[in-house]
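User: Please run a holo structure prediction.
Assistant: Happy to. Please share the sequence and the ligand.
User: Here you go; the ligand is 3-isopropylmalic acid.
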Amino acid sequence: LARMADTLRLAVIPGDGIGQEVTVEALKVLAAVLDGSGHRVETTEYDLGARLYHRTGETLPDSVLEEVRGHDAILLGAIGDPSVPSGVLERGLLLKLRFALDHYVNLRPSKLFPGVPTPLADPGEIDFVVVREGTEGPYVGNGGAVRVGTPHEIATEVSVNTAFGVERVVRDGFARAAARPRKKLTLVHKHNVLVHAGHLWRRTVEAVAAEFPDVAVDYLHVDAATIFLVTDPSRFDVIVTDNLFGDILTDLAAAVTGGIGLAASGNVNPDRTTPSMFEPVHGTAPDIAGQQIADPTAAVLSVALLLDHLGLGDAAARVDAAVTADLARRAAGEVGARPTAAVGDALAAAVVA
Amino acid sequence: LARMADTLRLAVIPGDGIGQEVTVEALKVLAAVLDGSGHRVETTEYDLGARLYHRTGETLPDSVLEEVRGHDAILLGAIGDPSVPSGVLERGLLLKLRFALDHYVNLRPSKLFPGVPTPLADPGEIDFVVVREGTEGPYVGNGGAVRVGTPHEIATEVSVNTAFGVERVVRDGFARAAARPRKKLTLVHKHNVLVHAGHLWRRTVEAVAAEFPDVAVDYLHVDAATIFLVTDPSRFDVIVTDNLFGDILTDLAAAVTGGIGLAASGNVNPDRTTPSMFEPVHGTAPDIAGQQIADPTAAVLSVALLLDHLGLGDAAARVDAAVTADLARRAAGEVGARPTAAVGDALAAAVVA
Ligand SMILES: CC(C)[C@H](C(=O)O)[C@@H](O)C(=O)O
Ligand SMILES: CC(C)[C@H](C(=O)O)[C@@H](O)C(=O)O
């Protein structure tokens, strides 16, 4: 998987709710941007999510996981439905994919595109990336409960952090910071309370920093980081943080950069021993699903991350440029509310080389 | 401690950094508002924090904790200093007080006072209160590390949640919601990932809701809650949440309501078997300490919470009104930057009955 062959074998998991609709548009744009490039896309679609669960009780059959593993990359729409008990699809499908495929870098860029409305009065320039750890922390599923449903119930959740796991994601964060013009890395944690995990993160950042003398290093407690995300988001360049803090910070970051409808993500295995998975940050939005009113932009931007990961930087840049132009047209009032497919059509037309 | 006697025995812990300066002003306002009320304040000051730690290596001697326990309430400035290893004062003093005195309700109102600048372009009316659990969750200090400093280090943090602990804080949240005009309670957690702890919280809210049929109940994942705090903060009335999520949400809430300089908090034991503790949400701000430029408003508003807790609602309302008026004068440009003591003087003059 070091570099993409002529044929990109893509596993597609549209999932639930608006995941279905936005994935169609993302694939449309992917096909368009690769048209004439000599690269072709071969997709295998996997019908995972609420429907499969209701039909069979399964979330991610082992055989499907093994098939998915044989692909070059995965495109995912969104997972989750109110008809399924909370946690079943999240833990049994989405997180299972991230963990089984060792997606230890959950990459979430936050950029305020020109003209995009933001809830902030004075946003300044916002362009940072969160490198969220993806395979450890409070997400490991190492919790339990006893005496459930009694007045003596005890429920625990264990955050597991290893030197191995922290170091590899911290090193990835530094490498990304070193490759960016501002070369700044901010560690976000809560080491004054979560002293064991926090100090492991802190010591690791200090140690890896020695390998990246050009990168300026900064630290914020997670509570303070949320303040700066609304008062001075320009201060951030690369944020490296754990799985749960990263979940929280990236939704907030999406909100200040125009909303979850524009936020893309990559669940990346930088070692390329498994396919990486690209998905919008947004959820399944069951309230608007099936109505062709969801904005597919986040899914399309996830395709840009996918192309970048596969070494097709030019194609990724064309997708980014098409989105930037489309958002500018919205800001200028040149286009109004469009069906999901119309946004996809416009972007697909715009990315052609 | 059910109701305040004529003499309020107040333990005062100014702490570190600007904690020292803001506490002086808070006490000034407290004395002024009770002047002529028949209530008098008897303060015992405890010099805890970085200085004690450097002198003796102690953070909270048992004998001091026992003395503090004998008071009606505690006023705290702020704790923490860069000269002390991270976590030592936080865990050994601040959290030790909260845990030892069973402050299970960490009460944090968020209100956008008229005229106060906010980073939000269109804030709307903001007036909610976060009921943050104070004695459980990831804050219990139930973590550890093995093979520290080696490539095989493992560090864990355990979030402990009990039916007993969750139920009492949830019930407090419902009681507060029932007493407010909008009567709405939002549970914030992450039960799709932290399934054991999250489902305990969720089931508890469902069960207690039956006792409060007038209160509308809502649920948000913590990541989504951060989005609404910047896109639609008016939707919140009472938020009930765990210790760590509450820490994060209340700093963000402070940011959108004019900053951490205005955010007050109470560490409350509603059972009144121990003294409750009132403190500004802000930290010690070592960079501006000792310069008389810190805003004492958050400490003064913490005094209002203290008075309310002691059943002196009228006095509390006078403090609130004085702060509201002072903030309006700032907004109108009638007062500029003033030394910390001048703000305290102005508020003290304004609260006199
Ligand atoms: C759906 C949920 C399990 C997931 C997460 O918490 O990681 C989502 O919020 C995200 O950020 O991708
Ligand atoms: C100083 C720190 C331990 C504390 C906390 O995390 O509770 C602070 O952030 C707060 O919110 O009071």
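The domain at 1-112+262-353 of chain B is CATH 3.40.718.10 (Isopropylmalate Dehydrogenase).
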